[in-house]
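Quick one, tokens below:
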């Protein structure tokens, strides 16, 4: 703890960064309450995915612009979680107004990525299906993913046809999308968003 204070003294976070760290902590608490189906938390937008993205952006920025390590920044966030929970008191009342302000900040600092397209999702789900088949054979899970991948491929082909692509051009686009994700897995679209896209 002393080393953390020493690091802060040598290279403190800016006021804005401190606000962002507090928002990360608060939105993490709200996301946890959403999982527990707390009514006040459920009145806010779902925060599990967007809050994690916000935390990553804030943490990376704090490490990049200060002398703090990732572990020290993580500890600062945990300290804020503890502080917010103490302020909430025994009833655990959530500071909803502050959380709403933090959501505005989150959407500005770490805006949601554009929704993935059918071609990219078809490539991603095909890779997931292939991996599941290698790992678990034709299990129920594998069959489910294969079905979703097939649905996305059909949707992608329909979109490509509508865009004037031939069958061979569609084949090429689907293969290129799959190869790009295999080469750079970090470029893969959000799988949950792709599953939603696959559902009719």
């Amino acid at each position: 703890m002393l080393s953390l204070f020493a690091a802060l003294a040598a290279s403190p976070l800016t006021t804005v960064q401190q606000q962002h760290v507090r928002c990360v902590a608060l939105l993490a608490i709200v996301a946890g309450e959403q999982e527990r189906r707390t009514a006040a938390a459920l009145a806010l937008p779902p925060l599990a995915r967007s809050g994690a993205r916000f935390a990553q952006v804030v943490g990376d920025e704090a490490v990049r612009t200060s002398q703090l390590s990732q572990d020290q920044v993580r500890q600062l966030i945990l300290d804020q979680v503890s502080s917010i929970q103490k302020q909430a008191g025994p009833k655990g009342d959530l500071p909803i107004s502050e959380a709403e302000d933090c959501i505005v900040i989150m959407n500005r600092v770490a805006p949601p990525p554009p929704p993935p397209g059918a071609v990219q999702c078809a490539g991603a789900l095909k890779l997931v299906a292939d991996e599941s088949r290698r790992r678990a054979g034709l299990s129920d899970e594998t069959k489910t993913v294969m079905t979703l991948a097939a649905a996305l491929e059909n949707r992608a082909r329909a979109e490509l046809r509508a865009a004037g692509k031939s069958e061979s051009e569609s084949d090429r686009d689907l293969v290129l999308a799959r190869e790009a994700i295999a080469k750079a897995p970090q470029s893969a679209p959000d799988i949950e968003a792709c599953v939603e896209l696959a559902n009719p």
